[in-house]
Amino acid sequence: MPNKTASLRVWMPGQWAVAVVALGGGRRAAADVIDPSVGLTSLAGVGNTVDADAPLAIVHARTEAEAEEAAVAVRKAYSIGSAADVIDRPSVVERIALTGK
């Protein structure tokens, strides 16, 4: 979490997966048990402003150590900068629909 107000420029969802697996919400091996009580919620999106009142994500963990490990992965998932650095991309790139019906 940044110490000041900033905007999210880029995110890498693969890091979110790393965080969830570290919490026990995913599998490293097929025999691993998934804990549905852990995970990430309220993930910030590109262009969102983040600060102490608007965090990158909320981490749900069993222990403080697991929470910190997940928080490190969440921080790695984002590139944070000024709002001017955010690449302007459309929310909808293409609409796919059935035709002829």
Straight-line N-to-C gap: 49 Å
CATH C-level: Alpha Beta
Helix and strand content put the structural class at alpha+beta
CATH H-level homologous superfamily name: Pyrimidine nucleoside phosphorylase-like, C-terminal domain
Low-confidence stretches: none
Radius of gyration: 17 Å
Biggest sheet character: 3 strands, antiparallel
Count of domains: 1
CATH architectural grouping: Alpha-Beta Complex
Q: How much helix is in the residues?
A: 10-25%
Q: How much is the average pLDDT? A: 83
> Care to count the β-strands?
5
Question: How are strands sequenced across the largest beta sheet?
Answer: 3-1-5
Reading the helices and strands in chain order gives EHEEEHE
Kindly estimate the percentage of residues that lie in beta strands according to DSSP: 15-25%
Tertiary shape = flat
CATH fold field value:
Aldehyde Oxidoreductase, domain 3
